[in-house]
Amino acid sequence: MIDFGFDKILVIGTVALIVIGPEKLPRVARTVGTLMGKAQRYVADVKAEVNRSIELEELKKMKESVETAARDVQAAARDVESSLQATATDLERSWGGMGEGAAALEAPLSYPEYRHPKKKWRIKQGATPGWYKARNGIRTKALSGAARVARYRPHKFN
């Protein structure tokens, strides 16, 4: 944009005050301000549109490069797969002459199912033994208020 310093703006303001007059100057300044704002918004919109088109072109180029790379990877994967199949067939042919030893190697290995060493490992266990708590009447389970009322309510026998 045009570079206006403070002294240039002061000169333009004094000339406008003399030419336009003090009565019309605020209205003209307001109009010029709105026109300048519209011009700045228009320039910003044009810049944004140009930037978007440039980014769109870059994204298209990037998409093409990614697609070519993906095609290359697929071709390499096909080559590796064919070489693995060839190797597997060679191994099967070479192992085919071993006889009964090959059948023993083909059996899958089985592992026992994992079990946690503690039977109830999620339950918190304190240092005080359970038999001591039971003998002395220490509560081992927390009860809600409603459950406590239901447990200790006297039963009516009819």
UniProtKB/TrEMBL annotation:
Record family assignment: Belongs to the TatB family.
Protein's cellular compartments: Cell membrane; Membrane
GO cellular component, one term: TAT protein transport complex
Oligomer and partners: The Tat system comprises two distinct complexes: a TatABC complex, containing multiple copies of TatA, TatB and TatC subunits, and a separate TatA complex, containing only TatA subunits. Substrates initially bind to the TatABC complex, which probably triggers association of the separate TatA complex to form the active translocon.
GO MF terms, alphabetically ordered: protein transmembrane transporter activity
Biological role: Part of the twin-arginine translocation (Tat) system that transports large folded proteins containing a characteristic twin-arginine motif in their signal peptide across membranes. Together with TatC, TatB is part of a receptor directly interacting with Tat signal peptides. TatB may form an oligomeric binding site that transiently accommodates folded Tat precursor proteins before their translocation.
Spans traversing the lipid bilayer: none
Protein's UniProt keywords contain Calcium: no
Record GO biological process: protein transport by the Tat complex
Keywords from the UniProt entry: Cell inner membrane, Cell membrane, Membrane, Protein transport, Translocation, Transmembrane, Transmembrane helix, Transport
Protein name: Sec-independent protein translocase protein TatB
Topology relative to the membrane: Single-pass membrane protein
Organism: Ramlibacter lithotrophicus
Coiled-coil ranges (or none): none
